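Blinded run. Sample ID left blank on purpose so nobody reads anything into the name before looking at the predicted structure. Input follows.
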Amino acid sequence: MRLTRLIPLAVVSSLCALAAPAAERSYVGPRTPEKADLPFSQAVRVGDTLYLSGTLGLSPERKVPDDPATEARSALDSFKKTLAEAGMTMDDLVFVQVFCSDVAFYEVWNDAYRGYFTKEFPARAFIGSGKLLFGARFEIQGIAVKR
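Blinded prediction complete.
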């Protein structure tokens, strides 16, 4: 008897979800196939959620800094700038994924990373990836939700 009462409710809930308008998308560093040198946008915002593309800590000349700590801070600064362009901060991050060419740099990354947050740290994965583009040591990507 209870199951028969739940089925109509489930159907109504599903139909309401289908009828809800899709959240608007906005882009940070948008690129389109006609105008892009690289085939991705820096970030895509859907509602209050921002999806950040992979970011390297390269110099403006696309060179890897000699010092791993400088490279880590450069990647994090770039991430922070993208978040700011979307009206967010590092404290809005809910998930971060770090790819590292050599996990021996784990503490170097953590030492830099700690200084970018004033509230709780986001969930995070630190993954030994092998070689990265341009010989980079670190690549960071993430998801932020506006507080």
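Unblinding after everyone has recorded impressions. The first strand starts at residue 25 and ends at 28.
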